[in-house]
Write a structure and sequence with these properties.
A: mainly beta, 4-stranded antiparallel β-sheet, 11 strands, B: 6-stranded mixed β-sheet
Chain lengths: ~120, ~120
């Protein structure tokens, strides 16, 4: 079956540009997570949705970062006025239920490079 | 604060030999521990988790992990390594400090495993 997909896979932006990263979770998955993974680092939590509700956004590094999941399926992570330090791989993951201990299924990530 | 440490950046092992990838953790309550693997150009994949019960947890692709409460460790093991096991391995712990049901994972920095033929 289809896994988690993310688009675009690669994005190059000039400093100051706005970008939008898309995540298509596995159909029917309630929980959706966004992570930021810098080169040589582990994933860092950004935000968490349960259906359309954004229940935890404590990991968003600044108010330039915004995420939404308006219909409880597809999610978009938007970064405004990109900075060089935003360069990273952005990972999306989904899990079936609300159980915080259940397995997360990850997409391939979007590699963002800010010049 | 919750934290996870993977003390080795890289582990090299010959094919057919046993492998161990180390992970230690620090949590205030009960630890919920996970191992994920990241193959080149692919997403992270779940290997196994420890929630409670038997200290030896078996997972995908022949991997297992041993939970040791006294040493606060959760090392990943495999009796006989394959070249195809070469990948980046991440240990993670559930942050029981997050509010409500929104418990996020705290991740280690990863260990690169190279299995040589």
């Amino acid at each position: 079956g289809a896994g988690v997909s993310q688009s675009p896979r690669y994005k190059v932006a000039k400093r100051g540009q706005d970008v939008a990263l898309r995540c298509d979770p596995i159909s029917g998955h309630v929980s959706l997570f966004w992570y930021q993974q810098a080169l040589g680092q582990g994933p860092e939590f950004l935000t968490y949705f349960q259906n359309e509700a954004q229940l935890d956004k404590s990991g968003l590094p600044s108010d330039r970062f915004f995420a939404e999941r308006p219909e409880g399926s597809v999610s978009t992570l938007k970064i405004q006025r990109t900075q060089q330090e935003d360069s990273a791989v952005y990972l999306c993951a989904s899990s079936l239920g609300r159980d915080p201990l259940s397995e997360q299924f990850f997409g391939p990530g979007t590699r963002l490079t800010v010049l | 604060a919750q934290s996870v440490a993977q003390p080795e950046d890289q582990v090299n092992v010959a094919e057919g030999n046993p492998l161990t990838v180390k992970c230690t953790y620090s949590v205030s309550g009960n630890p919920y521990l996970f191992w994920y693997v990241q193959y080149p150009n692919r997403g992270l994949q779940f290997l196994l988790k420890y929630i409670t019960g038997d200290n030896l947890v078996k997972g995908s692709y022949g991997f297992e992990a041993e939970f040791n409460k006294s040493q606060t460790s959760f090392h990943l093991k495999k009796p006989s390594a394959l070249v195809s096991d070469s990948a980046l391995y991440f240990c993670a712990v559930r942050d029981m400090g997050s509010p409500g049901n929104n418990r996020k994972l705290i991740w280690g920095l990863g260990t690169s495993l190279a299995v040589n033929p």
